[in-house]
């Protein structure tokens, strides 16, 4: 007997019913799939011949859990709800075995946890990643997992949100048997059922559990260790509470507690922000007219021009992905240094257990160097990472045009320059694209993919596909000064430096923004990037930024004194023995500049610091959106989350503006414009798009250039 509906394939073989989920692509437990499972549970329950039921998947994933796009909609609560379905499986009067192959995440794993036994194929991934969405496992996971494995380990798994392998799951006791592949499942199922035959199906509702003193201590110690990392975060704390209190109650009461904690988290701005970030990253890959699967160009060999830190960092990405990469530099000594640096970095990854010895060896074997453009004639992709100067870059592109094969993609890593002007020097501008990596390029996840007016669709599609291969989060942007990320950072950093002239100390500015959640404050970031680099960028963008103008004056004065930031052990801060310290000399210098420019110094509140910096950031974001440089507000958020240390739990600057309310952001900007004199008048004019959306009571998210 076999029955198929859209979502489930059901068949009975002898006494065993097989219920296979087939809701492509990843069996999200949508309302429709839940109904289908529930229906076939009825069928299996009523069929006297059925002694046991196997829950499995027809697809390469077991299940990616609850359908996140249903959250907040009626469907999400509609019966059979996911918690009710899991409870039903737990109480099911016949044996239930979950056969996991591929991903079993969130609600997907919770279904499996409610079964009597679990088997998993090698290479499967099991996890409860709800914490990454600002919620906690809400279909029994916070209670069934700690009843199955050590509660402190269960809590760690849920608070980390990272899936574990099926091999680890076996060691922990989370699965009962491991299969070489799903083809071998029949024998394992029969073996498990044989072991079960003596008893009756397990029902966690009817069993007693407790939390031992050792486990409770381990749980609380873990919570204390993570206190700093979890500052401001709601869901990890809720998970600990759910485990600690839940394990001291009946499953019935524990599930009620889980529900309450889940609802609290789900209604929080953090949950909205994290779920926004999840979908924004997926959407960023969707560029109208571009199908990544149509990427026609195979990238089998990459060349990088320039062997500085950036060039090396970029090369490491390709080497680790197993793509032969050639580093070109006219200076052979620099090439030797670069090779040694790359080797050290890759080997350190191996020593820290991040990559295997085999990958390390393959990566080093894939590296080669060259000092002549003729040696890169066969490269499919060339990325230029030389000094940030238009003339220098144009001369490199002229060489590339001369030596590279016709179909090669010619990419620039420029962070600010006009890519159209770079493409102009090539006879094949349709092959030119920007691939803007962020430093350190082997670590930072972000890749701004800059499309010129003439970049061809296959070139863009190929780069987007490649980004996934080298494990980057790619966002397609248009050409303008600084593209999206660096263009927005300019007003953000302008406010930070201006407030130092107005009387805030650098550490006050940095701490306020760190407290807001930024990974780093804007002033310490400027010291890290180099004060000279900031001045150079300001000069390059002359039409907006004039070196002598108020807020920039401090940076130029520091540069004059040779205080270039961390690299000279002094910038805005002093770095005696590597330790960052506020420097009274810089405070005095700021005061002097303020006096000479007629800026009155005063106390500046934390709220003002955050508002001026973050509202300026978002305001520039609205301009970028309006100009069509970014396709959607979510793309801007993805850039800030992955390249600029914006707190993920705030969802990005545009999501923050939406959450604050665009009318409030507009009002805030108007107040600043009014209250900060001529300076405010000049810099706090709201972007027309922000005004328009706020007045129409719309969100940034509701606007799209797609
Ligand atoms: C939960 O379970 C709550 C419960 O505890 C309690 C409830 C009461 N929902 O990533 P991909 C889409 S919370 C909706 O490109 P991959 C995704 O957007 C859930 N959609 O594939 C994409 O759509 P599109 C906890 C989802 O192979 C398409 O599926 N679970 C969901 O690179 C393909 O995805 C998670 O947090 C979802 N749950 O990676 C797991 N999952 O094509 C989240 C995927 O339109 N998911 N989509 O862009 C993942 O981590 C990855 O998708 C996965 C596959 C690793 C599974």
From TrEMBL:
Q: What stretches pass through the bilayer?
A: none
Q: In which pathway does it act?
A: Lipid metabolism; fatty acid beta-oxidation
* Domain of life of the source: Bacteria
Which residue numbers delimit the 3-hydroxyacyl-CoA dehydrogenase C-terminal domain? Answer: 482-575, 609-699
| An example Gene Ontology molecular-function term | enoyl-CoA hydratase activity
Q: Which SUPFAM superfamilies match?
A: 6-phosphogluconate dehydrogenase C-terminal domain-like, ClpP/crotonase, NAD(P)-binding Rossmann-fold domains
Q: Name one GO biological process term.
A: fatty acid beta-oxidation
- What reaction is this protein's catalytic activity? a (3S)-3-hydroxyacyl-CoA + NAD(+) = a 3-oxoacyl-CoA + NADH + H(+)
Where does this chain mainly localize?
other
Q: What organism, scientifically named, is this protein from? A: Pseudoteredinibacter isoporae
Keyword Nucleus annotated: no
From which lineage does this chain's organism come? Bacteria, Pseudomonadati, Pseudomonadota, Gammaproteobacteria, Cellvibrionales
EC number(s) given by UniProt? 1.1.1.35
Q: Which UniProt keywords apply?
A: Fatty acid metabolism, Isomerase, Lipid degradation, Lipid metabolism, Lyase, Multifunctional enzyme, NAD, Oxidoreductase, Peroxisome
Name recorded for this polypeptide: 3-hydroxyacyl-CoA dehydrogenase
- Specify the 3-hydroxyacyl-CoA dehydrogenase NAD binding domain's residue ranges: 302-478
